[in-house]
Specification:
By secondary structure, this protein is an alpha+beta fold. The protein is about 60% helix and about 10% strand. It has one domain. It has a three-stranded mixed sheet. The protein has a three-stranded antiparallel sheet with strand order 2-3-4.
């Protein structure tokens, strides 16, 4: 009914339809870091696996070096927390609850999205299994000529590949951290040693902490030239910032 070329196009389109895009778990994504030119920074992993942040308009950016190691951002956050983040025990209790709610709110979206993708993959896998069964049953007891045999083998291999791809992607989602029980104790207690907890965090953990504590990091010449705490953090839990800092600055 169709040419081999048309069949290949359909096969490739079908495989692409069930492919799941990898979730970005890099910290400082989503514009949390901005270049001094005003443009947001995107995450980028170099060949040596180090994480960098670069100006999204880096090829037209007026800054000489619109790129920075993520480690430099981590170090700047650590220095800020070490210097001024010293909440009282009462403030720790309030902030611990607020942080747990913040993390839960963001993870719920990730969980629902992973669940939706898994359901979609499951349906695609079942559909491919049914079509594979139909193809096999349709050929049982028949004497196929060379063309029919070639089409049969192509269909069989195609549906087997779709099933394998769906199964692999479902397994990846099952292993995804968004589907696992979240360790609230680890994160809700980070205030006991905020700077040290920040230094040890990585991936999604570091990203959630960064979003909760800071509103922005600004970079220039491969350095963090400015960082800002979220207003609720500065107003409620950092006396030095709330009262204006040293000498009223």
């Amino acid at each position: 009914m169709v040419s081999l070329e048309e069949w290949d196009k359909c096969r490739k389109a079908g495989r692409a339809a069930v492919k799941v895009q990898a979730r970005n778990n890099d910290p400082f994504r989503g514009g949390l870091v901005t270049c001094a030119c005003g443009e947001r920074c995107a995450t980028d992993r170099a060949k040596n696996k180090y994480l960098y942040l670069h100006c999204k308009d880096r090829y037209k950016c007026r800054m000489k070096q619109p790129r920075i190691r993520a480690k430099a951002v981590v170090d700047a956050g650590y220095a800020a927390l070490k210097a001024i983040f010293n909440p009282t025990e009462e403030q720790r209790i309030v902030l611990r609850v607020a942080y747990a709610e913040h993390v839960k709110r963001h993870l719920s979206f990730s969980y629902e999205e992973a669940k939706r993708q898994k359901k979609k993959l499951g349906e695609a896998k079942i559909e491919a299994e049914e079509k594979l069964r139909d193809v096999v049953l349709a050929s049982v007891g028949k004497s196929l000529d060379a063309t029919e045999r070639r089409i049969y083998e192509q269909e069989k291999v195609h549906y087997e590949n779709v099933i394998d791809a769906c199964r692999t992607d479902i397994e990846k989602l099952d292993k995804c951290s968004a589907l696992k029980t979240f360790d609230y104790d680890e994160f809700s207690n980070f205030l006991e040693s905020a700077a040290e907890s920040w230094k040890l965090a990585h991936g999604e953990s570091l990203h959630q902490m960064a979003k909760f504590l800071f509103s922005n990091f600004s970079i220039k010449d491969r350095k963090v030239v400015n960082l800002a705490f979220n207003p609720e953090i500065a107003d409620l839990f950092i006396p030095q910032l709330r009262d204006g800092g040293a000498e009223g600055t």
